[in-house]
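hey
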């Protein structure tokens, strides 16, 4: 495609679950677009707003000052929503009508797997003059469950939030001789639990990709409990506890309910460790919120810069990914706009993402193997 011309319109859309750093990406995309002479609009509330034609200048969202302020906060200034209508042919046809009516030339979609699937569905959308619409995706998902990028926007902030929460929980667990089961987000991908478990010094990490039965999960937790509380040491000639707490991090994708797991652990510990209590903490949407870390702000800004420049240069149906030369055995060259950012076809991204969710990805198999190898070290 030919490069966009000055005055051409592009729109920014955030969809699905919010992620810290989305606002930073919106700010960067708006500034880069303006520098290239483009008119940058915002789509209110994701694909729902696209269908309803709520495509507005950023002055209606507060302008550059509002973007500057929002870039330091979580959430998304232009809102996000999941749309059941958009997944239907009727909904997609209506969205394409609104794209032509608004005279858009390009669309930048920020979100996770579902959001990029929606971006893929807009392939074939036409502008008002009959030329093809350009669509570029940005990976924004705290679960880090997208292929084609080493990290998605929001992951680093979420990991730090979990780590800080676990550090605080470990303090109270240490004071009371407790086992804490901390449940974190990650419905289809256990990445957050895996990485936060290592960073927080957890005694065991439970994740969906491990494929363990309920009984195997209980056994894994009990190995960690035994290692934490059964070790004895001599202090000043007296025998005392080697440790006073045990931290278990569990991904929400593990189907075994956290409270049922607590009951099973309590039943096993009642006889041998009668003074040890088990507690459950579900961090839930706390992990989504908060100000983005410095890394997430930089990541969001650099990905947005490449995405807008790719739209301007004529690229379409690609995703800007971070430092990810490998995916499914394929080697991808860096983009011409940033040596650490690649542009990968959305078809490839979505196909490899499906393999990640099914456990068939080489990357997922490596993660499972790495955590399995780390388990003996974690419980020592």
């Amino acid at each position: 495609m030919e490069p966009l011309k000055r005055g051409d319109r592009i729109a920014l859309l955030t969809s699905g679950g919010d992620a810290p750093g989305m606002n930073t990406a919106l700010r960067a995309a708006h500034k880069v677009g303006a520098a290239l002479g483009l008119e940058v609009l915002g789509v209110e509330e994701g694909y729902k707003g696209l269908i309803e034609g709520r495509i507005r200048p950023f002055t209606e969202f507060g302008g550059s000052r509002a973007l500057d302020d929002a870039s330091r906060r979580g959430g998304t200034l232009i809102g996000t929503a999941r749309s059941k209508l958009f997944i239907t042919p009727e909904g997609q046809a209506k969205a394409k009508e609104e794209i032509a009516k608004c005279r858009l030339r390009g669309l930048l979609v920020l979100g996770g797997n579902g959001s990029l699937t929606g971006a893929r569905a807009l392939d074939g959308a036409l502008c008002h003059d009959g030329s093809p619409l350009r669509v570029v995706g940005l990976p924004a998902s705290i679960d880090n469950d997208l292929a084609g990028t080493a990290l998605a926007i929001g992951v680093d902030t979420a990991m730090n939030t979990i780590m800080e929460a676990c550090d605080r929980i470990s303090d109270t667990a240490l004071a009371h001789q407790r086992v804490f089961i901390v449940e974190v987000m990650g419905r289809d991908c256990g990445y957050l639990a895996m990485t936060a478990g290592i960073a927080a010094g957890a005694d065991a990490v439970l994740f969906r990709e491990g494929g363990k039965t309920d009984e195997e999960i209980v056994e894994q937790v009990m190995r960690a409990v035994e290692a934490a509380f059964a070790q004895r040491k001599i202090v000043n000639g007296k025998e005392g506890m080697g440790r006073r707490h045990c931290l278990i991090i569990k991904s929400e994708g593990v189907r075994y309910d956290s409270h049922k797991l607590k009951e099973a652990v309590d039943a096993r510990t009642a006889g041998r460790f009668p003074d040890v209590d088990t507690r459950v903490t579900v961090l839930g949407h706390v992990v989504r919120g908060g100000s983005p870390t410095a890394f997430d702000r930089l990541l969001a800004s650099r990905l947005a810069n490449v995405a807008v420049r790719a739209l301007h240069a004529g690229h379409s149906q690609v995703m800007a990914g971070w430092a990810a030369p490998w995916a499914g055995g394929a080697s991808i060259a860096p983009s011409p706009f940033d040596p650490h950012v690649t542009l990968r076809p959305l078809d490839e991204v979505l196909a490899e993402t499906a393999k990640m969710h099914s456990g068939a990805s080489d990357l997922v198999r490596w993660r499972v193997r790495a955590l399995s190898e780390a388990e003996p070290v974690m419980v020592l």
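The first strand starts at residue 9 and ends at 14. The two ends are 58 Å apart (CA to CA).
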